[in-house]
């Protein structure tokens, strides 16, 4: 084989390996995929107070209604995920199906409560 051909094979192997690593990282959610909406809960010490979260819900009643109209399994409420820090809260959105989650994620991609949101499958 010629030297040029070896270079071409080497470059193809490196590029192919890089693509496999990238695809694996995206598939395992290790590398964020552009446009993919993820909702990660902040640490308990960084969550807002329950009163702030309740205020956000009351100020965004139209968004709450829109989210709950996605499906029968969707509910929006104040959640207190930190057992020992009862004043720390977030908005907890419960859903039942993948379709409901996709619809909720689509809405939240363009609208915000201004406080952290947690999605829970039930």
Can you give a write-up of this model?
The chain is built from 4 helices and 3 strands, in the order αααββαβ. Helix content is 44%, strand content 13%. It has helices spanning 3-27, 50-59, 61-68, 98-108; strands at residues 75-79, 90-95, 117-121. The chain has a 3-stranded mixed beta sheet with strand order 1-2-3.
How is the topology of this model organized?
Elements: H1 3-27, H2 50-59, H3 61-68, E1 75-79, E2 90-95, H4 98-108, E3 117-121
**Helix proportion:** 40-55%
C-alpha geometry = elongated
Span from first to last CA?
Answer: 60 Å
Please state the average pLDDT score. Answer: 82
Beta-strand residue fraction? 5-15%
Radius of gyration: 21 Å
User: How are the strands of the largest sheet arranged?
Assistant: 1-2-3
Count of discrete alpha- or pi-helical segments spanning 4 or more residues? 4
> Order of SSEs, N→C?
HHHEEHE
Main sheet attributes: strand count, strand direction, barrel closure: 3 strands, mixed
What low-confidence regions span 5 or more consecutive residues with pLDDT below 50?
28-37
Number of strands: 3
Alpha-beta classification: alpha+beta
């Amino acid at each position: 084989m010629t030297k040029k051909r070896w270079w071409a094979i080497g470059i193809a192997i490196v590029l192919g390996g890089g693509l496999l690593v990238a695809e694996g990282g995206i598939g395992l959610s290790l590398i964020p995929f552009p446009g993919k909406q993820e909702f990660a809960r902040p640490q308990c010490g960084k969550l807002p107070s329950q009163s702030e979260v309740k205020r956000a819900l009351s100020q965004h009643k139209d968004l709450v209604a829109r989210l709950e109209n996605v499906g029968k399994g969707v509910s929006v409420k104040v959640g207190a995920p930190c057992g020992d820090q009862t004043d720390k809260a977030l908005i907890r959105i419960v859903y039942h199906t993948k379709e409901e989650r996709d619809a909720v994620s689509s809405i939240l991609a363009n609208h915000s409560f201004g406080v952290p949101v947690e999605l829970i499958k039930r």
